[in-house]
Amino acid sequence: MKHQFVIRIAVFSAVAVGLSGCAAAQMGLSHKNLNVQTKMSNTIFLPPTSPSRQTVYVQFKNTADQSLDVPALTQELDARMESQGYRVVPYKQAHYLLQINVLSVGKMAPSAARNSLTGGYGGALAGAAAGGLIGGSYLGAGVGGLVGGIGGLVADSLVKNVTYGMITDVQVGVRSRHAVQQQTNANLQQGTSTSTTQNTSQVGHWMDYRTRIVSTANQVNLSFKTALPVLQGQLVHSLGGIL
């Protein structure tokens, strides 16, 4: 009886490892190529202007928890702008103001990336920045349960479907000859049961347009070192096409 039990456990283990191996192989084939996508929450349509007024001031910031080479990214973006006929100039001389803030970059669940895109400029990040299991689909857990997770553990240690994402808020300002009046309404939370409402108005000379750019990179066993240059390249490409 004991001998039959040992044989049965061995058979179940072999089946579990085999099924996990098949699932891992399928995952590896489905996501073997690097898949990079970049989307904007809103399209920005800017009024046409004469070549003499195609001047832009770029302000690039990074408030994510990962370090980025902001000066290098700014230079790359400046070069792209100039290749398209724009002149990068000081603030007071600029007809366009391009402000960029990278909010988050790192492992990201695909659903969190979609939710952050839907939230648009200034929206919540929907738990986008995450580690551990988020950002990687681990295989074999259900199958491995047949024998205490042995088969799943073998597959999981070799194959992980990893997604990295970059979330960036962008504001484009267009200098106006006429005064632009802006009114801001804010509800500030005070504790759990009290809020303060603020209303302010000001007059300036900038018409503002806002959008959010979300880039994702997905591949089996993708590393941050590999994903970061691709995500940065996609961001610069999208930013270069806004004006």
TrEMBL record:
<keyword id="KW-0564">Palmitate</keyword>
<feature type="region of interest" description="Disordered">
    <location>
        <begin position="182"/>
        <end position="202"/>
    </location>
</feature>
<keyword id="KW-0998">Cell outer membrane</keyword>
<keyword id="KW-0732">Signal</keyword>
<dbReference type="GO" id="GO:0009279">
    <property type="term" value="C:cell outer membrane"/>
</dbReference>
<protein>
    <submittedName>
        <fullName>TraT complement resistance protein</fullName>
    </submittedName>
</protein>
<dbReference type="Pfam" id="PF05818">
    <property type="entry name" value="TraT"/>
</dbReference>
<feature type="signal peptide">
    <location>
        <begin position="1"/>
        <end position="25"/>
    </location>
</feature>
<dbReference type="InterPro" id="IPR008874">
    <property type="entry name" value="TraT_complement-R"/>
</dbReference>
<keyword id="KW-0472">Membrane</keyword>
<keyword id="KW-0449">Lipoprotein</keyword>
<feature type="compositionally biased region" description="Low complexity">
    <location>
        <begin position="189"/>
        <end position="202"/>
    </location>
</feature>
